[in-house]
Amino acid sequence: MKYFIGRLRSRPFIDFCLFAIAGAIILAVFSIVPQSRFGANLWNLSNYVFPSIYGSIAGGLLGIWSGRLRRSLHAQTSMQERYHDLFENASDLIQSVALDGSVLFVNRAWRDTLGYCDSEVSSLNIFDVISPDDHHQCRQRFESLISGGVVNSAEVTFLRKDGCPVLVEGNVSLRFENDQPHSLRAIYRDISERKAAEVKIHQLAYYDKLTGLPNRTLLQDRLVHAIADAKRFDHHLGVMFIDLDHFKKVNDTLGHHIGDLLLQEAAQRLRDSFRENDTAARLGGDEFVVILSGYRNSVNVPHIAQKILENLARPYTIEGHELVLSGSVGIAIYPQDGTNADDLLRNADMAMYAAKGGRGDSFKFYSESMNRNAVKQLQLENGLRHAIQEDQFFICYQPQVDWESKRIVGVEALLRWNHPEYGLVSPDKFIPVAEETGLIIPIGEWVLRRACKELKQLQVELDIELDLSVNLSGIQLEHPNIVEVILNALHESGLPSEQLELEITESVLVERTDQALKLLHEISSLGVRIAIDDFGTGYSSLSYLKNFPIDRLKIDKSFLVDILHDTDNAAIVETIIAMSRNMGLNVIAEGVEIHDQVEFLTDRSCPLMQGFLFSKPVLPSQLKVLIEQGDKLFE
Fold first, then answer.
1. Portion of the chain with pLDDT greater than 70, in percent
2. Which is more confident, 77 or 123?
3. What are phi and psi of 457, to 5 degrees?
4. 262, 323 contact by CB (below 8 A)
5. Fold (CATH) for 378-634
6. Residue 513 above 80 pLDDT?
7. What end-to-end distance do the CA atoms of the chain give, in Å?
């Protein structure tokens, strides 16, 4: 019933009724008017019946048709409104362009993105908003479409009203009217943010974040292509491996912020040192690589290397700090020094270390002898890794004597390596390798523990007290567990802490000032004494002698050579002895080989000595004999 009532109240039913009534009335009126002229009775209802019936039927049908027409028009209007709403509110840029390029209509996103209002669009030509760089490409696409071709999606740069570029991507299609090309329609999407993100990702993947130079990955790719071009065109190719000298000192003293700014400035100077088609890359830290490509010969490479060194050596002013650095450059040339990227980089690296091993601030070309030395060094490194486990190390001890009391008062522990293939290897050869590889940490710990144990055992056997001097490298001093290592060595051996002396060089104090000061105070608080080895050959600054807990200075043996005839050396030794006395420090001279040196030292109140005159470094069993026959050392 409700449904029936609802249908009666619906608009189609009402239309039907209204049009039926109207039709009956209209047809009845039009039928009676002619009859009235012939005297028909107007009040006779029979005159109206049939016209009214026919009129109501016609009106009802008309009502049904008009209702359907109205609903159809309403639906069409609603659909147009929805399409218009969809068109206007679409996030993509939609445009319709006449064949001559004039803009017919665009949507809101198009106007908002490019900054035009409705009234300005109608006067625009599409080429007014396309970047001039893309005009030719777009004209070709339009012509291809008009001639029946197929055009794929493409990127185009639009220009905003204020001139800012907007990168878009989309498709263009041709619209026909009466089977004739009428206009071009296109839908574009703004991809500026996506492209910016892609550029950023590419930058992070292939460029160094700090300096903006290519990183290792991009360097490898460019070097491979440069080698291919050099091979194809028969050109030479230079690879330079560059390391900044003493950069670590800047980081340690002024902080990483200043170090980063310094690296940025150094990178810019590298860019300014060669051509645009060459490549400079940062491998990490203070290491850089330069690829010099397209040279007919390598005669210009030394000049470029020298220019790089000169640019790097110019003073830097970083946040009020004036800094002076130098560089070490190693050079490998394609094809004689390598025919692939790995060989060229490795050989340039070896050449750089050869330059750095000299005085720095220089360049060296790779040579085969470097490769042989590198191979031998690698063999030494591999051997060092097994030396402790295979018991190849041993310790010799050189006596330290007191000339006044004519007795041995201490010993210096000196590490020796008996290599199964090379025999005895000089410490001058394997200690630098151990420091460079970090193996000095476990080796140094082994030396400290073994020396404390062997000396304590000797003290017990002979019922004497002897001081023990052990060298400590700068790498060991940087290790966070060094204090714990010292404590463990003393605890395991039972050696009193006041009988242990650790020898460090002047450079360790200067290059690691803050960290060294803290650690040395911790070590000194244990009762362990600190000595400066080879004093006088380094910085010889009175400031660290005052600030650091130093107990003794060791006069370097180089000053004792020809001391009676070399007035400069004599003056240096006298100054060190007098300075030590005034500062309350003990002093010992090493490298004593003749009695004239002994006389010179005793006359200046330096009775503590060490050298071949008394004994060369010996094994623990030989040291025991020396101590038992100590008087013979002073004959």
1. 81
2. 123
3. -65, -40
4. yes
5. TIM Barrel (3.20.20)
6. no
7. 140
Highest mean pLDDT among 39-53, 67-81, 312-326, 348-362: 312-326
As a whole number of Å, the CA-based R_g of the chain is 48
Domain 91-195: which CATH number of 3.40.50.720, 3.30.450.20, 3.60.9.10, 2.40.10.240: 3.30.450.20
The pTM for the full model equals 0.54
Higher pLDDT, 611 or 86: 611
Q: How many CB atoms lie within 10 A of CB 492?
A: 12
Do 253 and 513 touch, CB atoms closer than 8 A?
A: yes
Cβ burial of 496 (10 Å; 0-12, 13-18, 19+) is middle
- Tell me 426's DSSP state: P
Fold observed for domain 207-366: Alpha-Beta Plaits (3.30.70)
State how beta strands 407-419 and 321-323 pair: unpaired
| Residue among 485, 384, 487, 488 at smallest CA distance from 443 | 384
* Residue 221 CA, distance from chain mean position: 17
- Worst-scoring range by mean pLDDT, 192-201, 507-516, 562-571? 507-516
Residue tagged 């020298």 (tokens) = 306
Q: What angle do CA 268, 269, 270 make, to 5 degrees?
A: 90
Highest mean pLDDT among 125-129, 537-541, 631-635: 125-129
Cβ proximity of 220 and 291 under 8 Å: no
Amino acid, res. 39: G
- Start-end of H helices in 192-246: 192-206, 216-233
Determine the 3-state secondary structure of 111 from DSSP: helix
Report residue 497: phi and psi, to 5°: -65, -30
Note the residue count of the chain: 635
Strands 552-555 and 326-334: unpaired
Predicted local confidence at residue 631, as pLDDT = 66
Q: d(Cα 537, Cα 554) in Å, to the nearest integer?
A: 11
- Which tens digits make up the pLDDT trace of 127-146? 888 888 888 888 888 888 87
Ordered by start, the domain boundaries in the chain are: 2-88, 91-195, 207-366, 378-634
- Residue 591: which residues within 8 A CB-CB, separation 6 or more? 556, 557, 558, 560, 561, 610, 611
| Residue 486 near residue 526 (C-beta atoms within 8 A) | yes
Using omega within 30 degrees of 0 as the cis cutoff, is the peptide bond preceding 315 cis? no
pLDDT at 189 over 90: no
Q: Which helix (H) or strand (E) holds 516?
A: helix 513-525
Pairing of strands 180-190, 93-98: antiparallel
Helices 11-37 & 46-89 angle (0-180, nearest 10): 140
Is the pLDDT confidence value at 26 over 90? no
- Coil, strand or helix: which one is 311? helix
Sign of CA dihedral 109, 110, 112, 114: positive
113 burial type by CB count under 10 A (0-12 exposed, 13-18 middle, 19+ buried): buried
Residue 198, amino acid = E
Residue-averaged pLDDT of the chain:
82
The residues pairing with 410 across neighbouring beta strands, listed in sequence order, are 400, 467
